[in-house]
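Posting this for the archive.
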Amino acid sequence: MASEGGGRRTDARHKLTWIPPSSGWAKVNVDGAFSSDTRRGGVGVIIRDKRGAVILTAWRVIFQAASAEEVETLACTEGLNMATEWVRDRVVLESDCSELVRALERKGTPRSNLCFQLDEIRRLCNRLPGVEFRAIRREQNCVAHELAQLAKRTTHTAMWRARSPCCIEQLVAQECNLCSE
């Protein structure tokens, strides 16, 4: 999707790193992790401003998930729900689940077992000044991925305002250093 908020760069070294949003935008990176044998999932969310400063990080365990797609959709819902609470700017939501991003970009809701969740995401979008969806590579979504894995592994839920947990602080700093080089 062409964008004001994404600040896309064409330089090859930036293609696989987190890219900060443009002024007036916040970036919400989300990811879901799912284990089919335990049916346990994890959701990871990090919201950052144009400087890369953390607005919040969160993770949530999901018990009895039906599929990886369901967990990815719940990650988007969680990220947008938190953005409605803590962000006043327009939002770029990034996920490494390209099928979900395509579904969210389409008008109307496809008939699927996720249709109610997709409707909820669209309702949340109406509570924000503007939302863009972007599919990115996993290498650009490392922090959200680690948070989702943390939720699944530790089987608990947490949210940190204006910072990240110690176990991923270095990864957050590394992503921001890479994008400013």
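The helical segments are 68-86, 98-105, 115-125, 142-154, 166-180. Strands lie at 25-35, 40-48, 54-62, 90-95, 131-135, 158-161.
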